[in-house]
């Protein structure tokens, strides 16, 4: 049953990779595959049991994927200390830009959805 769930997840990832390869769009294949998986699940209006079990099993171990990033921070602490100012400014500016773009997108969606609901 877990193999069926893996097959579904990897199948959608493969679909995303193939579409990126064929079309050349600048979206990572796994992200595109995940979007197609979401669309598939929304159209189906339920999650198949094998896919649910496999996904829950994978999500249980998700925190382990953060360990290599933490080790990298520790190993490159001197570089981080040397470039702290640049890194801090970059993080602050990128966070502010992300918030601004998010606000603009939400305002645009609110206007668009408000206009479509009035009709």
If you had to describe this structure to a student in words, what would you say it looks like?
This protein has 119 residues and is an all-alpha fold. It folds into 2 domains: 1-60; 76-119. Helix content is 84%, strand content 0%. It has helices at residues 2-23, 29-44, 49-60, 67-75, 77-82, 84-118. The N and C termini lie far apart (47 Å). The model has no long low-confidence stretch (mean pLDDT 91).
Tell me the layout of helices and strands.
Blueprint: H1 2-23, H2 29-44, H3 49-60, H4 67-75, H5 77-82, H6 84-118
Transmembrane segments: 26-43, 58-78, 84-106
Subcellular location: Cell membrane
Membrane topology: Multi-pass membrane protein
Structure summary:
By secondary structure, this protein is mainly alpha-helical. It has helices at 2-23, 29-44, 49-60, 67-75, 77-82, 84-118. This is Holin-like protein.
For the structure shown, list the relevant keywords.
119 residues, mainly alpha, 2 domains, 84% helix
Query: In total, how many beta strands?
Result: 0
Distance between the termini: 47 Å
- What's the main sheet like? none
Give average pLDDT, whole number: 91
As for the number of domains, it is 2
Unreliable stretches (pLDDT < 50, length at least 5) are none
User: What global shape is seen?
Assistant: extended
The Rg value, from CA coordinates, equals: 20 Å
Helix content range: over 70%
What portion of the residues fall into strands of 2 or more residues?
under 5%
SS content category: mainly alpha
Pfam family, one: LrgA
Subcellular location: Cell membrane
Transmembrane segments: 26-43, 58-78, 84-106
Keywords: Cell membrane, Membrane, Transmembrane, Transmembrane helix
């Amino acid at each position: 049953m877990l193999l069926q769930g893996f097959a579904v997840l990897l199948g959608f990832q493969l679909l995303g990779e193939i579409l990126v390869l064929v079309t050349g769009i600048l979206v990572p294949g796994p992200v595109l595959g995940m979007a197609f998986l979401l669309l598939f699940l929304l159209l189906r209006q339920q999650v198949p049991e094998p896919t649910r079990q496999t996904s829950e099993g994978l999500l249980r171990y998700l925190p382990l994927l953060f360990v290599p990033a933490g080790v990298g921070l520790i190993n490159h602490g001197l570089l981080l200390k040397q470039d702290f100012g640049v890194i801090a400014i970059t993080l602050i500016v990128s966070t502010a830009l992300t918030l601004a773009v998010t606000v603009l997108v939400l305002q645009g969606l609110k206007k668009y959805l408000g206009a479509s609901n009035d009709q």
